[in-house]
Amino acid sequence: MRDPEPAERTPARREDLEKLAVSWNLGLGNYVCRENQIVARMGKLDWYWPFPSYRWSATPAAAAERPIDISFRGRLRYHRDTVSYQRVETARLLSEFENESGCATAPRNKLPYREYRHEMRRSKVVLSPFGFGEINVGRDLECFIDGALLVKPDMSHMETWPDLFVPGVTYVPYRWDFADLKDVLRRALAHRPDALRIAAAGQARYVAALGSEGGEAFADHLAALLRRAMAASR
Fold first, then answer.
1. Are 232 and 19 within 8 A, CB to CB?
2. Residue 121 lies in a domain
3. Is 40 within the bounds of a domain?
4. From the CB of residue 80, how many other CB atoms can be counted at a distance below 10 Å?
């Protein structure tokens, strides 16, 4: 997939690469806010500084009422075909899988946020294809909190902090070319004990990152980054 007018970015200079380090991902940031608030805060330190967005309790993965097999909501079309591709192809293959398997999937129209979260708490599997990046800051983290099984393209190439995305441990990966997506979904729905174990592990890891234990880990991580920066400046 290529865009008609590909975007070009100047790569970093080789001598600057050693300056790069993994800080922390937006899973620790307060991103659940209105669009005008996002615009006003973008680029400011408090946008990136740890401030959990969630004010409700986590829903256990083994919650009894999960009548929805698969939930996948979100925007499909973007101004670049390379960004839209993952979303459009996911929707197409999910429609095929629904017809073939008879599973119960959620409609794809837009919902008010509270209704969307209620749906996720009633879903067994949440599909989360890539968009502008690998991490869907809303869907991935909401899936962890709401106890559904996160299914998304393989992220084993990426290092993040906190380390929330561990293939086969906190989420279930599928290939970037979608070759195994239907098989992954079929297994996720057929083998509920495995799905529940992974969903519970993803939730536990994220909840820990937002708690006091995670706060101490963040302080240690930030201190290490500062020590590295100070050493580099000498």
1. yes
2. yes
3. yes
4. 16
> Residues 2-34, buried b or exposed e (16+ Cβ, 10 A)?
eeeeeeeeeeeeeeeeeeeeeebbbbbbbbbee
Residue with tokens 């279930």: 172
- List residues bridging with 71 in a β-sheet: 126
Token couple for 123? 């879903």
Contacts of 35 (CB under 8 A, 6+ apart): none
If you search the block for the tokens 């998304």, which residue do you land on? 152
Distance CA 89, CA 195 (A): 24
Q: Does residue 12 fall inside a structural domain? A: no
Largest CA distance in the chain: 63
Cβ(143)–Cβ(121) below 8 Å: no
CATH number of the domain where residue 128 is located: 3.40.50.2000
Tokens of 196: 């529940």
How does the average pLDDT of the chain come out, rounded? 86
What range defines the domain where residue 55 resides?
Answer: 25-214
pTM score over 0.70: yes
pLDDT(131) > 90: no
Q: Which two tokens stand for residue 217?
A: 């880990």
CA-based nearest residue to 89, from 195, 7, 190, 182: 182
Per the structure, the count of domains in the chain is: 1
Q: What is the pLDDT of residues 138-190, one digit of tens each?
A: 889 989 999 999 999 999 999 999 999 999 999 999 999 999 999 999 999 99
Residue 52 lies in a domain: yes
C-alpha of 9 from chain center: 25
CB 144 within 8 A of CB 202: yes
Q: For residue 125, what are the β-bridge partners?
A: 70, 149
